[in-house]
């Protein structure tokens, strides 16, 4: 049987876990909203929006959660920190290149039609 000290310790651990889960849910919602902003601005798919957020975070040394917070506030405040503002178009272009072209489709076939074979 667990004594009072053991119960108090278990309760403290559970409270800490609940708080961590609350932060994770909030952070996840914020990131999803930022992906939506990036999708709208860049004309991208959800997975591309996620890659843009990651790229910005990795290349600016700004935590992903902070990048997401800035992007979610941007439409209403019309302000974006300089480091994120400069990184956003580069990240969008990077993700488009990875996916095969300006339209972002792999291989570019959906955007430009099937590729033609050219002799020689």
Automatic annotation (TrEMBL):
Among InterPro entries, the record links this protein to: ANTAR (IPR005561), CheY-like_superfamily (IPR011006), WH-like_DNA-bd_sf (IPR036388)
Cited Gene3D superfamilies: Winged helix-like DNA-binding domain superfamily/Winged helix DNA-binding domain (1.10.10.10)
Kindly give the SUPFAM superfamilies that the UniProt entry links to this protein.
CheY-like (SSF52172)
**Record domain ANTAR: where:** 11-72
Read off the SMART domains from this record: ANTAR (SM01012)
Q: Which PROSITE patterns match?
A: ANTAR
- Superkingdom to which the source organism belongs: Bacteria
Give the span(s) annotated as Disordered.
94-120
Q: Under which name does UniProt file this protein?
A: ANTAR domain-containing protein
């Amino acid at each position: 049987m667990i004594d009072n000290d053991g119960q108090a310790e278990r309760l403290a651990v559970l409270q800490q876990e609940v708080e961590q889960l609350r932060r994770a849910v909030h952070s996840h919602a914020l990131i999803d909203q930022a992906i939506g902003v990036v999708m709208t601005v860049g004309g991208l798919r959800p997975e591309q929006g996620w890659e843009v957020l990651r790229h910005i975070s990795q290349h600016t040394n700004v935590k992903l959660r902070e990048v997401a917070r800035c992007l979610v506030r941007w439409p209403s405040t019309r302000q974006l920190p300089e480091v994120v503002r400069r990184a956003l178009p580069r990240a969008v272009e990077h993700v488009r290149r990875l996916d095969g072209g300006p339209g972002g489709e792999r291989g570019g076939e959906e955007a430009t039609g099937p590729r033609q074979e050219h002799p020689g």
